[in-house]
Structure formats: C-alpha cells, structure tokens
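job 3f2a | input accepted
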Amino acid sequence: MKNIKNFIICSLLVIVLLMAIGYSTFATQLKLTGTAEITGEWNIRIINITAQDVSEGCYSGTPQYSNTNATFDAKLVKPGDSITYVITIENAGTIDATLSNIIFKEEENGSPAIIYTTTSVSNLLKAGEQTTLTIKVEYDSNYTEVPSIKTKTITGSIEYMQN
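job 3f2a | predicted structure (163 res):
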C-alpha cells in the first residue's frame, strides 16, 4: 500500500510539473510602452500697427507694438480731424482660437471732444490666419471751442481662448 501511495504522489508531482511546463510553453507576456507629446502651440500676437487716413496737420506718432501690446499717440488739431490705427493680429500657433472677450474703456475724466470708435475682430482666428482691428480717434466736429481738457486715453484688451 505504501508503494501505491508513493506511486500516486510521484505521479501527481509529475502531472503538476508537466502542467507547469505546458503553461509556460503556451503563455506569452506582452509588453506595451507608449509616449505622448503635445505638439500644439498657442501663439496669438500683434504683428503690426499702422496709422491711416491722417487728417492734414495731425500727427499720428510712431505706433509701437510688441507681441501682446500696441500703443499710439495721436495729436489732433481742429474739430473733424481724425486718425485711424489698424492693428494686425495673427494666430502664429497651431491651435484655432475663438474670441472670448473684447473690452475698450475710455478714461472717465478725459476730453469729451475726443471720440474713439473701434471695429470688432474675427470671432474665429484659425491657425496661420490674421485679422485686423481698427481704432479711429476723432476730434468731435460739433465742438466750436477748444475744450479745457485736451486728452483722453483708451485702454483695451482682446482675449482669445483655445477652440
């Protein structure tokens, strides 16, 4: 009987060993490796500002700009005079942009004789495209006397967000 038990135990060990060898023969381990990279670029910028339609005798200054700022200094002489500034905005990135906000604010204590008017920019600025914004500065033609306050400043922002 003891021999039968030993034979059964040895047989079971051999069967388990054969099953382990069989499993390892038919089992395959797959290895996966992945890398992700962001290649999109966000680059909305001002690329130019020019003065146009300058009334005779007026001074448009030398408009200045950097990637995100534009400034100008208009000198108007008489009622009806005006200068128009054209600001070119470019999407130099690879991501389309949507206009989210545009705000222009005139200083409260500035001259009421100076009128600023602006045009809107494109709501959608696709990658590689340009749009323009115009700001017209005008000495109100209804004024018959030189006002005591002679300056008015405008500040503004144009905000784009990723599409």
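job 3f2a | Helices lie at 2-26.
job 3f2a | closed
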